[in-house]
Amino acid sequence: MATPHINANKGDFSKVVLMPGDPLRAKWIADTYLSDVKVVNEVRGNYAYTGMTKNGKRISVMASGMGMPSIGIYSHELYTEFGVETIIRVGTCGAYQQNINLFDVLVCTTASTDSNYAYQYEVPQYSAGCDFQLAVEATKILEEKKIPYHAGNILSADVFYDTDPEYYKKWVKLGVLGVEMESYALYVNAATLKKRALTLLTVTDHFVNKGEKASTEERQLGLGKMIDAAITLAEKYA
Question: What is the mean pLDDT of each successive set of 10 residues along the chain, which is 238 residues long?
């Protein structure tokens, strides 16, 4: 049954969904890594795809859009209306720690935020975390594939163009690995609905090592390694 934002039918989605931010990246993942692909959503041009991996596992791919309100809507509807049990966010981020290099992968075990997303639960603060088993299995896969990674806390920010260019340093002092804009809402929804979620991020920009920034071509190549690992992880839950 369709929702306000997804016009799929019951059974159109796999139990596990890869969720990049960009709809074009979702299409690229489906075209590159899946066969027998079926388009299962078209609302607002945010196409979603379900297909088969090379190992015969059925998985889905759908973009989240940018920011916590957007991923909050899509993940909630996938979890509650379409039988999805696991969402693996696959995105990019800016690094906050000097020992992190471009194209390293971040396994985001927890998410801090400057957002008020959790106000609805009437708690002063909420520490949002991933599914532990997903994180453990992700690190094993990354090690097997010899992909450099770091596991820890990520910042899910509400603002991309901050008026204070030094604001990020407050999070650096706390050991936060880097910044993106979605994971906190995903983790809160998963916790509330008793589902699984994990974010994997490829580092494409650096706040501490100024000037380090991936080109468009480098982003695609770097993301490919992470997506390959994420597909391997998704197959375990398909």
Answer: 87 97 94 97 94 98 97 98 97 96 96 95 94 98 97 97 93 97 98 98 91 74 90 97
Please indicate whether residue 205 is annotated as part of the active site.
yes
The span from the CA of 39 to the CA of 49, in Å, is 5
Q: Is the pTM here over 0.90, yes or no?
A: yes
Contact by Cβ (8 Å): 201, 138 = no
102-135 burial code (b ≥16 CB/10 A, e <16): bbbbbbbbbbbbebebbeeeeeeeeebbbbeebb
Place of tokens 């596991």: 151
Phi, psi of 16 (to 5 degrees): -125, 135
50, two tokens: 């379900």
**What CA–CA distance (Å, rounded) separates 117 from 121?**
9
Of the candidates 12, 22, 114, 205, the residue annotated as catalytic is 205
Question: CA 73 to CA 19: how far, in whole Å?
Answer: 13
Sign of CA dihedral 62, 68, 74, 78: positive
C-alpha 126/C-alpha 63 separation (Å) is: 25
Distance, in Å, from the CA atom of 197 to the CA atom of 191, rounded to the nearest integer, reads 9
Torsions phi, psi for 235 (to 5 deg): -60, -25
